[in-house]
Amino acid sequence: MELLDNLALGFSTALLVQNVLYCFVGVLLGTAVGVLPGIGPTATVAMLLPITFSFEPVTALIMLAGIYYGAQYGGSTTAILINLPGESSAAVTALDGHEMARQGRAGPALAAAAIGSFVAGTVATVALAAAAPPLASVALKFGPADYFSLVLFGLIVSIALARGTALKALAMIALGVLLGTVGQDIYTGTPRFVFEQRELYGGIDFVSVAVGLFGVAEILRNLENEQTRTAIVSKVINLWPTREDRRRIVAPILRGTGLGAALGVLPGGGHVLASFTSYAVEKRISRRPQEFGRGAIEGVAGPESANNAAAQTSFIPLLTLGLPAHPVMALMIGAFIVHGITPGPNVINDEPALFWGLIASMWIGNVLLLLLNLPLIGLWVRMLRIPYQVLFPMIILFAAIGTYSLNSNAYDVYAIAFFGILGYILIKCGCEPAPLLLGFVLGPLLEENLRRALIISRGDPSVFLTRPISAALLALAVVALVVAVLPTIRRRRAVVFAEED
Amino acid sequence: MERRRSFPDVLAGGIFVLIGGAFVVGALGYELGTPTRMGPGAFPLLVGAAVVALGLAIAVKGLVAGEVISFGPIPWRAVAVIVLAVLFFGFTIRRLGFVPTTAVTAMLTTLASTRVRLLTAVAVAAGLTVASTLIFVVGLQLRIPLWGPWLGF
Amino acid sequence: MRTTSRYRATARMIAAIGVVSLAAACSGNGGAAGGGDAANYPDENITIVVPFSAGGPTDTVTRMIAEPMAAKLGGKIVVQNVEGAGGTVGAGDVARAKPDGYTVLMHHIGMSTAPALYKSLGYKPLEDFETVGLVTEVPMTIVARKDFAPATLQDLVTHVKANANKVTLANAGIGAASHLCGLLFQSTTGVKLQEVPYQGTGPALTDLVGGQVDFMCDQTTNTSGQIAAGKVKAYAVTTPERVKSLPDLPTTTEAGLPQLKVSVWHGLYVPADTPPEIVQKLSEALKVALADQGVIDQMAKLGTAPVPAQDATPDAHRAKLDEQLGTWAKIIADSGVKVS
């Protein structure tokens, strides 16, 4: 019953008045900033990090964690309401969430996201408390070859994000991967495709791509024919999920939670894969796959749960090993250091109150988020009544400011215009933007791990097949590719048969 | 389902071939390296070639049996104005400072809509300038001067 | 002390929610581009540009000294992170900033290696900056995966010489401190190793702990937690003296490789032509901050310490920069690394 003792210690720390208060302030600030277009969780945490520097260590970390998942939550809200994702997981939420909003069902979409996140957060907190150290040792088994295969699998799975043909989705993914190569090559430092502009050495910013492909392209489509097309239905059909909605979201939430919790543990990019693997799974096993992309509530509930579960379990490598899984975790390492705690495997033994307090606070934070956001749904939905002539300039302006504020880099702003036009044309040609965005996020991981695996194996490509984890993932990737392409073949055969009749 | 020549498919294919091809050409200018130590050019070369191949496939398919998609009208005014507004923002934010840049950008974007009246546009631009100053400069304490060096500050 | 800092943080937080009046904010922000005369300096906020990400070691060190420096100067110091291209973007920004003392740069050893790594840097370290003073020298440690065969630094050298084409040497990216230390290791031992670059110390250390790569050299800030927990094997620390937080770890000199000396030295810079009185004021404030017990304690936890007072001066800093520029130009040229 060590677990109960630990949790008791955790809750006694996390429930201290100042900790609950700052946890609340954290999720509130995170939500408020995360909801701004163009500012995702990483930027939110980086921006608000200094606020926490003068607190007690445990309070600071609790607040920082609160900012992180609050920002993630706020980002989903923006994705659903105005189709503007602040990070890759929110891009998945936008697919069906924004479609629901257009149909006047923003309320149920937001509620499904909130409830899914809460369930996922609760389960993941328990997983974190019960099995953090063993899970962490599993994570360490993943080498560069395994990550390469995992990412390749993820890329193939993201074909499912498109409604259109697998061929176009594949092309968009590959284009995304290609755009991800812009910037300084990490192996040699060679700047690639930067046209001698030092501002491009860091590559193209994700937010610029997302704001362009989703935000600007969407606005241009809405302005195509202002007389007949209304951007967002201001009439609200229902604010809360119907009984039918509630029935439909249970299984996706549970599946998403499991999937996300498992992937989140992997420090080399597992959390990025969580939400869209969940989307692909839901679309695949649904009896109504044609509804996906047209406002299927499962397409919001599953990925949101997966994302939140992964966000939570991605703390496992950080807390048990002192190893950051992604940029937000790297910022948390900084926070540890500022507070005089040496991040590393010893934190769990040296600072048990901090360790368990932080874990317990995550659950409290999820409760607070739910309490904060369910009442806010009405307010958000009302925001959609803002006339579009005010709303779209606001989106573009805020997105430009938000993007610029990240690195004070004008090229990030120029990139918005470029991707807006590119996305607009491609969308008009039946190529959907989500696969490109994911290719863009995963591409650098693919290249990095491919090259690293080959350096370590001295150029021997058989390493991808001789490592069991990698071989299994590659096999899965092949299956996923066959499954994705199969319907096209079957449809063609149906056409052929119809002609024979 | 009817299948015939599809302009959007051919256009999409063309874009993929063009961008993929540009990256292939660019990648050839970088070192390709060896299998053990792939150079900076190797990966973009491979992926660029894949994009070209996929683009060709889409274009060819579009010529024989494409997807029937209606391309629809292009809101030229909105495209021009929004691109201009975004580029203006990026270019002048450091030079004119936060307030003037924001005001002009907001004003320009508002004009993207064909239905907007000038007075509304001015009102929206003013409102958005105040709102964004409050949120980003006051609230988030962005380190951007309110008035920039071009205005003599 | 704690209450005041908490009060300040709360105040900032309220500001962050956006409740503070516009007028108050204007007085705080409006003058960012202004300038005053040296006698009244500082009459507005000073910005310290950190050319690396928030939360990284350089950022941490900067934030540690910012508060006591601000207290001494009698103004407010804001830390701004301008990342990119190995710190050269942020440094370039400061080089072009107004030389009025309100834009200060914190940079580390990378200031002395950039000219050798980058062909078109856009600034010259010695000519485009005034040095203010050195801040700290963070020691580095040579660490390996737990089950790596060599037991001591001497063994390691023998081992890599015998297995040069098998051993992998990880680093945190081109131009990172770990990369530089790795280059120095290779040039001292005369062995060319297969280097495995990562994006930052975090992922590199993850693979080292996971046993995917053999060894690396990185700052105590990053490695001491893993060393203390026994997750990695440590061979030596690269400074002339042992580190307080790792008392059992020999120095490279003790372990028989005295040429392998390197530390991640940090210093403050202002744009060239900043009035000398202002540079002097900043240097004085730096000295006060480095003598602050809180700063000393915080640095000790990172396995480092403030530089002695005589090094926190413009002249000592300039001498160090000059010497390091020459040292690294040679090592980097010999290694054949060139970024652009």
Topology:
The complex is a heterotrimer of chains A (501), B (153) and C (340).
Chain A: H1 2-14, H2 17-34, H3 41-48, H4 57-82, H5 88-102, H6 106-139, H7 144-157, H8 166-179, E1 183-184, E2 191-192, H9 206-223, H10 243-264, H11 270-285, H12 298-313, H13 315-321, H14 327-338, H15 347-350, H16 352-383, H17 388-407, H18 410-428, H19 433-456, H20 463-466, H21 468-500
Antiparallel strand pairs in A: 1-2
Chain B: H1 7-28, H2 42-65, H3 76-96, H4 98-110, H5 118-139
Chain C: H1 2-17, H2 22-29, E1 46-50, H3 57-73, E2 77-81, H4 88-96, E3 103-107, H5 110-117, E4 129-145, H6 153-162, E5 168-171, H7 177-189, E6 194-197, H8 201-209, E7 215-219, H9 220-228, E8 232-237, E9 263-271, H10 276-291, H11 293-301, H12 314-335
Parallel strand pairs in C: 1-2, 1-3, 5-6, 5-7
Antiparallel strand pairs in C: 3-9, 4-7, 4-8, 4-9
Helix pairs in contact in C: 3-10, 5-12, 7-12
Signal peptide (chain C): 1-32
Protein name (chain C): Tripartite tricarboxylate transporter substrate binding protein BugD
Organism (chain C): Micromonospora trifolii
Question: How would you sum up this structure, described in words?
Answer:
Chain C: Residues 1-32 form the signal peptide. Chain C: Keywords: Signal. Chain C: This is Tripartite tricarboxylate transporter substrate binding protein BugD. Chain C: InterPro entries: BUG, Bug_dom1. The complex is a heterotrimer of chains A (501), B (153) and C (340). With 501 residues, chain A is an all-alpha fold. Chain A has one domain (2-144, 167-431). In chain A, 74% of the residues lie in helices and 1% in strands. In chain A, helix 2 runs parallel beside helix 4, helix 4 (57-82) runs parallel beside helix 16 (352-383) and helix 5 (88-102) runs antiparallel to helix 19. The longest helix of chain A is centred in the first third of the chain and has 34 residues, at 106-139. Chain A is globular. Chain B has two domains: 7-65; 76-151, no CATH class. In chain B, 67% of the residues lie in helices and 0% in strands. Chain B has helices at 7-28, 42-65, 76-96, 98-110, 118-139. The longest helix of chain B has 24 residues, at 42-65. The mean pLDDT of chain B is 88. Chain C has 340 residues and is of the alpha/beta class. Chain C has two domains: 2-137 and 265-335, D-Maltodextrin-Binding Protein, domain 2 (3-Layer(aba) Sandwich), CATH 3.40.190.150; 139-237, D-Maltodextrin-Binding Protein, domain 2 (3-Layer(aba) Sandwich). Helices cover 43% and strands 18% of the residues of chain C. In chain C, strand 5 (168-171), helix 7 (177-189) and strand 6 form a beta-alpha-beta unit. The longest helix of chain C is centred in the last third of the chain and has 22 residues, at 314-335. Chain C is globular, with a radius of gyration of 21 Å. The termini of chain C are far apart. Classes of the chains: A mainly alpha (501), B mainly alpha (153), C alpha/beta (340). Chain B binds chain C through residues 36-37, 97, 133-135, 137-141, 143, 145-149, 153, and chain C through 12, 15-18, 20, 22, 25-26, 29-30, 32-34, 47, 78, 80, 194.
